[in-house]
Write a structure and sequence with these properties.
Blueprint (H helix, E strand, L loop, with lengths): L1 H16 L5 E2 H7 L5 H16 L3 E4 L3 E4 L4 E9 L5 E5 L5 E4 L12 E6 L4 H6 L5 E8 L4 E8 L4 E5 L8 E3 L11 E9 L8 E10 L3 H11 L8 H8 L7 H5 L2 E2 L7 E3 L8 E7 L5 E8 L10 H9 L3 E3 L2 E3 L4 H7 L7 E11 L5 E12 L3 E3 H8 L13 H23 L10 E5 L5 E6 L4 H26 L8 E3 L5 H12 L13 H11 L5 H11 L4 E3 L23 H14 L4 H42 L5 E10 L2 E6 L4 E6 L8 E4 L4 E4 L5 E3 L3 E10 L4 E6 L15
Parallel strand pairs: 11-13, 14-21, 15-22
Antiparallel strand pairs: 1-3, 2-3, 4-5, 4-7, 5-6, 7-8, 9-10, 9-12, 10-11, 12-13, 16-17, 17-20, 18-19, 20-21, 23-24, 25-26, 27-28, 27-33, 28-29, 30-31, 31-32, 33-34
């Protein structure tokens, strides 16, 4: 009977993949792999059992199908480069897997209706992800696509930059809009095609020649649908604000203009949204002040400025440009905490004990006057004992002393935070230098300075204090809706995969009962300074859940905070602006009706802010890749030291150590041997030579191909003397 049950489950699983179809017995047996007469007898008994238990249905003509009526769900389609995808349901963490043959004409980002395939008993017991087929497209995510115009013998096509758009787009000659083959263009879709027909559209904008930096950067802007110019009503609203602060507004605020505070920012920064101060108190305590630009005074809820800021969600930082959340008059002038100018602020004044504990705090609307604009490099020089560190001569000794005391306090706070379970990922970033035409001439690895850590610790403490202020009030029975920054614990499956991965390198990560943040940090400490540090940091980071905004607080796993919010960057992040408004409302005892209005609005704000944050991060990565590819175009044939950052069946991912540029060595370019993939040891092994390429290996590589349109860089092992090739072009 056990054999019959196994066959029955196999039949049920097959029919579940085709819930709308009916099969004759012989065809069903063939499709499920039962071909001999003996197998067919078992097959018939299994079919009879499934009929008797009402798990399959028999239709006219002795045809069989799944008994369950297909269920449907609605969600957003997220497509992968491999062709399959997932539908994320609204207000649910569950995803539905969509095989390539079941996506129809849906493209990445579409809102779709999915017919779920029934699950077998085994699939349900194992907790397998649901699968389904897209049966209806409810809303298109986009009406235009960025790509490169190409020409065949009889027609023109636009090859999309986004690989998640699986088909080229036909363009009639009369719809070219003066574009020429090889141009980077924006094509507006008129028809998404039916069946095997390709989409059709017309060109609405020419961005430049494909492969040129300016055109490729503009293509990133269009690809991620980032807003460029501010609408006229927004600009008019920004221009209406006077340069001076109304006297009536000053009277209602805590006046800190005589207190010593200053900003610490990147050397090329133009918007300064946070300043810091420090005072000694009796008993060894200190008063730490974190003063944040009060953007909420200008960007009032419901105004044109507010609606545009919500739409943008965040400022986006490309290597050569910024797409700001707010117009420049606010971000760089009225709200920016420029030195020796009166500015409206929101101040968090925290009494901190010698053990790093916040004993008391005050959160107040204030007016401040920054005494100095420091760069991170200047502060670093001062902390190293090099004096003023700046071009303005000798600093006030009191300011120099304050900076040293700030560093001591930030070190205390960091050690306390790490003891309590915070995770400190060591990630690297690249900075570019450009020529007069905007082409990258140099890539520099950013160094994480002590001055960076100083500011980070103070901002973390202010954010935590603000969130606890509201969160604890909620716990005492006061309904105070709030926008939290939350970070869930890693998915158990991903934790086990990470544990298995690090075990290959001799490290242990216990996953019983879930991975504690302390255990993960212990692992990162163990690998620090080893050949596999970067690789394990990257894999561990990928295993983490994504931090998001939410009206429901679950704490922040990565920081090991019970309460956390974003408060310190309202010039460039919309959630911070919302938090400022809520603090003001609660300080003035808003009505229950108003609290309900806020509670109703926050879920949308959280989703929108999280979505725009993800889009900004992806766009920033794409822009960095554009610059890296452009830089490497000028280094075809050059050799570099690299680390193996990934190994797959079709090749090796490598990263140039000094430039943080990643590319691939394809197996076809490993010409000294035939290489096979050793899945257990994450390596490629030469069949004849036994040569092995493993994660973390240092190798010498040569640049052999660069593809600006695909944003890809190909390398070869330097000693193999691989011939240098040109750019590869993708055709579909």
């Amino acid at each position: 009977m056990g054999e019959v049950n196994q066959v029955a489950e196999k039949i049920l699983a097959f029919l579940a993949r085709y819930p709308q179809q009916l099969f004759r017995a012989r065809e069903l047996a063939r499709r499920t792999g039962f071909k001999t007469s003996e197998e067919y007898q078992v097959f018939k008994r299994a079919v009879r059992q499934l009929q008797e238990t009402n798990r399959i249905r028999r239709a006219e003509g002795a045809r069989f199908g799944h008994h369950e009526v297909p269920q449907t769900v609605v969600g957003e389609f997220h497509m992968t480069r491999q062709g399959f995808g997932f539908v994320r349901q609204v207000d649910s963490t569950e995803e539905v897997f969509i095989p390539p043959r079941c996506r129809g004409m849906a493209v990445h980002g579409d809102r779709v209706e999915v017919s779920l395939f029934p699950q077998s008993s085994k699939q349900r017991q194992q907790g397998d992800k649901r699968e389904g087929e897209i049966v209806r497209i409810l809303e298109r995510a986009r009406v235009d696509v960025v790509g490169t115009l190409d020409r065949s013998r009889h027609f023109y096509v636009v090859i999309p930059d986004d690989r998640k758009i699986a088909r080229d787009i036909y363009v009639a000659k009369e719809d070219l809009n003066r574009a020429k083959p090889g141009d980077k263009v924006v094509v507006q879709i008129d028809s998404w095609g039916v069946g095997h027909l390709n989409p059709e559209g017309r060109i609405v904008e020419v961005l430049g020649r494909a492969g040129e930096v300016s055109a490729e950067i503009q293509s990133v802007v269009r690809e991620f649908r980032l807003p460029r110019e501010f609408p006229p009503p927004v600009m008019r609203e920004a221009e209406r604000f006077p340069d001076s602060i109304p006297e009536a507004e000053i009277r209602g605020r805590l006046d800190l203009r005589n207190e010593v505070c200053f900003t610490i920012d990147p050397e090329d920064a133009r918007d300064f949204d946070d300043a810091v101060s420090l005072q000694e108190l009796p008993g060894g305590n200190v008063l730490l002040g974190v003063h944040i630009a009060d953007v909420s005074f200008y960007a009032r809820e419901g105004s044109a400025l507010d609606q545009e800021a919500l739409k943008r969600g965040t400022s986006v930082y490309f290597p050569n440009m910024v797409i700001p959340m707010l117009p420049e008059r606010l971000s760089n002038i009225l709200c920016s905490l420029r030195p020796n100018e009166d500015r409206l602020a929101y101040s968090v004044l925290m009494t901190v004990s010698p053990r790093g504990v916040v004993k008391d705090y005050d959160i107040r609307e204030s007016i401040i006057r920054s005494k100095r604009r420091f760069s991170y490099e200047e502060v670093e020089t001062i902390l190293e004992g090099g004096g003023s560190g700046g071009p303005q001569g000798v600093e006030n000794p009191a300011v120099l002393d304050m900076l040293h005391r700030m560093w001591k306090l930030s070190t205390l706070l960091m050690k306390k935070r790490m003891r309590e379970g915070s995770i400190d990922f060591e990630t690297s970033e690249a900075k570019f230098r450009f020529d007069e035409e905007g082409n990258p001439t140099e890539i520099i690895k950013k160094v994480r300075l002590r001055s960076h850590r100083l500011v980070e610790e103070f901002m973390l403490l202010a954010n935590q204090t603000v969130a606890r202020h509201i969160g604890l009030a909620r716990r005492e029975g006061h309904r105070k809706p709030f926008l939290y920054r939350i970070h869930d614990a890693p998915d158990p499956d991903r934790s086990r995969e990470l544990s298995a991965f690090v075990s290959k390198f001799g490290y242990k990560l216990h996953t019983d009962g879930g991975v504690r943040s302390k255990d993960l940090q212990r692992l990162l400490d163990q690998v620090r300074g080893t050949d596999v540090e970067n690789v394990i940091n990257e894999v561990a980071l990928r295993a983490m859940a994504k931090a998001v905004y939410s009206e429901h607080n679950i704490g922040h796993y990565g920081l090991a905070f019970d309460y956390y919010a974003h408060f310190t960057s309202p010039i460039r992040r919309y959630p911070d602006l919302v938090v400022h408004r809520l603090l003001k409302e609660y300080a003035r005892s808003s009505s229950l009706q108003r609290s309900q209005e806020v509670a109703n609005r926050l879920p949308f704000v959280a989703r929108q802010s999280s979505a725009m944050e993800r889009a900004a991060m992806e766009a920033e990565r794409a822009a960095v890749k554009v610059m890296q590819v452009e830089y490497m175009k000028r280094h075809l044939g050059d050799e570099f030291d690299a680390i193996v950052s990934g190994v797959v069946r079709f090749g090796i991912f490598v990263e140039i150590v000094d430039l943080l540029v990643e590319g691939m060595i394809h197996v076809r370019d490993l010409q000294d041997d035939y290489y096979t993939y050793d899945e257990q040891k994450y390596s490629l092994v030469g069949r004849a030579t036994g040569r092995r390429y493993r994660l973390g290996d240092m190798i010498r590589v040569k640049v052999i191909r660069v593809n600006p349109e695909e944003r890809e860089i190909d390398f070869a092992i330097a000693e193999q003397g691989q011939a240098v090739g040109g750019n590869r072009k993708r055709r579909r």
